[in-house]
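Here is the promised in-class demo. Please do not try to memorize the tokens; focus on the logic of going from shape to residues.
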């Protein structure tokens, strides 16, 4: 479905197509082949203890049906509860990272290199965190928006430089405990962004508009309940490598 920013939000629900059961998903990126004759979406997902990359080929007309394919790219992911990806592609130095939130209280970062991954080590200090999504991608840092099980909302500023430590800023102290899934989209030209937050238990999603992230001073407007049914797992941001998020 597409969710349009409005008060209340509007939702356009598309026909379902066969996929696989997943327990966590990262962003879907739209691309095409060299001739432009085939458009497809791709991204990473968790199924059981394995990490998969999907490539979903999109039909040329409305009568067609998307055709997903899947490739296992990693094992040992049983204790990861949430994943997110960043891609900074508009200038050098470019980067692409996979972030994984582990039940041991650490956030892991992996450099995406071609079809593989290079582990960059754990970042401790994330025990009690729950859901996350990327809201900034720049040449020198990424920023994640993360919730805690207790309901707090934080930005996590992660420098690209090796050995640099993440900087956490509290955005809101409560109210975010119900949400198992967050999906972000850019909004405007001054660093604003939209968030869809989904409560898996009630299968309800809500839309929020944020100003440029600045800790507790971050402006936030609730657009309200989205008129659609959600599951708290499969909600993702659909973007491209060249639509960079700049929420912080």
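The designed amino acids, position by position:
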């Amino acid at each position: 479905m597409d969710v349009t920013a409005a008060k209340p939000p509007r939702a356009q629900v598309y026909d379902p197509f066969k996929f696989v059961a997943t327990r966590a998903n990262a962003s879907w990126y739209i691309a095409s082949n060299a001739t432009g004759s085939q458009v497809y979406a791709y991204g990473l997902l968790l199924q059981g203890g394995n990490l998969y990359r999907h490539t979903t080929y999109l039909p040329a007309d409305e009568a067609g049906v998307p055709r997903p394919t899947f490739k296992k790219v990693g094992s040992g992911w049983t204790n990861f509860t949430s994943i997110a990806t960043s891609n900074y592609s508009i200038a050098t130095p470019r980067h692409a990272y996979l972030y994984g939130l582990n039940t041991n209280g650490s956030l892991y970062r992996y450099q995406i290199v071609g079809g593989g991954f290079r582990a960059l080590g754990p970042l401790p200090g994330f025990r009690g965190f729950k859901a996350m999504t990327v809201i900034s991608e720049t040449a020198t840092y990424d920023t994640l928006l993360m919730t805690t099980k207790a309901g707090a909302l934080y930005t996590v500023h992660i420098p690209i430089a090796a050995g640099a430590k993440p900087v956490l800023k509290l955005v809101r102290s409560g109210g975010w405990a119900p949400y198992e899934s967050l999906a972000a989209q850019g909004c405007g030209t001054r660093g604003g962004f939209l968030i869809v937050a989904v409560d898996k238990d009630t299968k309800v999603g809500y839309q929020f508009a944020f100003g440029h992230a600045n800790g507790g001073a971050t402006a936030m407007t609730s657009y309200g309940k989205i008129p659609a049914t959600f599951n708290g797992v499969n909600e993702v941001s659909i973007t491209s490598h060249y639509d960079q998020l700049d929420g912080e």
